Amino acid sequence: MFKNVLCPVDGSAESLEAARVALDLTRKYGGRLRLLHVVPIYLIDLLSNRVSMSEVDLLPREVEKRLATEGRGFLDKILTELGPAEEVTCQLLEGAPGEVICTAAEDSDLVVMGSRGRGRLSGLLLGSVSQYVLSHCGRPVLILPRSSTSS
Predict the structure, then answer these.
(1) Cβ 111 vs Cβ 140: under 8 Å
(2) CB 78 within 8 A of CB 35
(3) Long-range contacts for 73-81 (Cβ within 8 Å, ≥24 apart)?
(4) What is the CATH number of domain 4-144?
(5) Which of 18, 25, 45, 151 has the CB geometry, 3.0–4.6 Å to 114, for a possible disulfide?
């Protein structure tokens, strides 16, 4: 049923939990799991991903390289946390996170992602990647709610 599962990750505890659930589903159905981290390239996405205002003045390529390195670190950390799993692959892409995830999901049977649980105002101002994917993705999307133990 779920042979190809896509799990976008951002380094948060919520995305790690989503990766665990996605791996369980993948193993249950004998499928493959693709972990995806998106390096944001638009100013509003950069600001919502821990880029300071002083860094905005840097050459965009320098910021992008830092975020790509950080993204590879997120993927490596999640792979380590999941343990040995030959059915898991990783992908690092750049662009507007919601759009990239929806495009990447085109060859997937399911998208599993965590919700960061931003407040209403923050979610309105910065947008919600999970909400965007839920609204625009042509595939089933499982969004795990923020756990009460997450910070």
Answers:
(1) yes
(2) yes
(3) 73/11, 74/9, 74/10, 74/11, 74/15, 74/37, 75/9, 75/35, 75/37, 77/11, 77/16, 78/9, 78/15, 78/16, 78/19, 78/35, 79/35, 81/16, 81/19, 81/20
(4) 3.40.50.620
(5) 18
**Tokens matching residue 16:** 């790690």
Distance CA 105, CA 4 (A): 9
Q: Among the listed ranges 4-13, 34-43, 79-88, which one has the minimum average pLDDT value?
A: 34-43
Residue 84: partners with Cβ closer than 8 Å, 6 or more residues away: none
Model confidence at 150, pLDDT cuts 50, 70, 90, reads very low
